[in-house]
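Dear Dr. H.,

I hope your travels went smoothly. While you were away I took the liberty of generating a structure for the chain from your last submission, since the lab meeting agenda had it listed for discussion. I wanted you to have the full record in hand beforehand rather than looking at slides cold. The sequence, exactly as received, is reproduced here:
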Amino acid sequence: MVNTLVRRVGAAVVALTLVALVACDLWVGGFRAWWDRHSLTGSVVSSLLVVAVTALIFDEVVARRQHRERAISVSVQALIVYGQSRRTYGAIISNAGDDVRLRGAPEELRTLAGMLLTASPSLFDDPVARPFLAQAERLMGSMLRTISATDRGATHGDGRDRLASEMSQLKTAVGPLRERIPPEERSVLEEVPE
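The corresponding predicted structure, in token form, is as follows:
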């Protein structure tokens, strides 16, 4: 964010300087005469302005490309976390009548926790991915509470409805991130059909 601001302010300063020099050269006779008498200075200043404009344009092109590539990378991480969230949710819900602590749900939850810890910095830095991260953490907390419940059938009733609601919210939150990924690559990442 700071680099973007510095880059844009730098571009504005260079552009305004260039416009001011051209305007003064066209309309102020004394200014034009001074530059005529100091041709070396004029040549150095014009060369520096050309280099500055070129560098700023190149920097902006590179920054946009990196942002686009990073956005896709973050979206892929989010889609992987979303897939693990669905697997964990499925493991908990499929064992609704059993004690979910005795099935594969705890292992799925540990895997999800590891994925979230790994992906969190990237997801947090991306403003579009941040709501997804928050919702994934809420869902994981609810799943952990469900697994930690001591009475059997903890996923019945309110607990099951809460998990279903939070899973639906996670599906909504991953939508904008999913759209960043080209469709042909997205289908490879989505193992479990919706």
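Two observations you may find useful: The first helix runs from residue 2 to 27. The chain has two domains: 2-64, 71-189.

With kind regards,
E. W.
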